[in-house]
Amino acid sequence: MRVSGPGDGTPILLIHGIARSLEDWNESQDLLAAAGHRVISTDLPGFGYSRKGRERPGLPAFGRAMAGLLDALGVTEPVHVMGNSLGGGVSMTLAVDHPDRVASVTLVNSVGFGSEVNISALPMTYGVLAQLPGLAGTFGPRAREAGANTIRDLFFDRSLATTDQFRHAGKLAKQKDFRATFLGTAATLGAPVVGVKAGWRRELLGRVAASGIPILVIWGDADKILPPHQVDAAKAALPAARFHVFADTGHMPQVERPAEFVAVAGAFVDEVQAARRTARG
């Protein structure tokens, strides 16, 4: 967990995507904190460097974990949640299951708006095979290259797929609970081969639309993981939401364009917060 910014600042909770970690938010977190917000980022249970929770991994369990985190930190004021990819689904779940805890939601290339998802299972498959006796020499290099390609696909600007990115992803994949959490989460949401399941998407989006909570949807127009045409589905499902699409940007705008991302998302938070103060007054 990482907390930055003034203690009395507007609270913002940042949630990363599947198989990722809180480090995906580092630059954006610093910028949001510099703007006067109290910013919290954390690893979802079983991802990053965290241990898995007692519950089966999935949106409900992750949502409860985020509510528990806020309790542990003593955050009683409604937070502005920003979630990337899987983190978007967790953000929406937190908002509808704990409506008193959430002031707004910013969905960043979020899961939930279509069946298509390009999360390659090859790195994990090769990684498992490489651990079998006598197969490390054959499948170890394949696992590393497949993993590297997965990292490259996250960005429009492939220079961002640095050696440090590869090393960090490799360390995450070696954490004790990573494999079980990844497979368990994928099973609840829908596997890459069969697509993201429609049932939970319809139910969750219906609840979000009915909640009236302020929503900002941000996307990169060159996303290779969750294709950008899913923005059209988001507009249909959440007609009251606001939308911003970044040009020449991949799956993680908060990494690829941190200053521009914070300018858009931060302005949305400030506007919602001002409206809440006016309503209270």
Task: Describe what you observe in this structure.
With 281 residues, this protein is α/β, with parallel strands linked by helices. It folds into two domains: 2-117 and 195-280, Alpha/Beta hydrolase fold, catalytic domain (Rossmann fold); 122-189, no CATH class. It is built from eleven helices and seven strands. The protein has helices at 26-34, 59-73, 86-97, 122-130, 136-152, 163-173, 178-189, 198-211, 230-237, 253-256, 258-280; strands spanning 2-4, 11-15, 38-42, 79-84, 102-108, 215-220, 242-246. The longest helix is centred in the C-terminal third of the chain and has 23 residues, at 258-280. It is globular, with a radius of gyration of 18 Å. The chain starts with a strand and ends with a helix. The model is unreliable at 121-130 (pLDDT under 50).
Question: How are the secondary structure elements laid out?
Answer:
Blueprint: E1 2-4, E2 11-15, H1 26-34, E3 38-42, H2 59-73, E4 79-84, H3 86-97, E5 102-108, H4 122-130, H5 136-152, H6 163-173, H7 178-189, H8 198-211, E6 215-220, H9 230-237, E7 242-246, H10 253-256, H11 258-280
Parallel strand pairs: 2-3, 2-4, 4-5, 5-6, 6-7
Antiparallel strand pairs: 1-3
Helix pairs in contact: 1-11, 2-3, 3-8, 4-5, 5-6
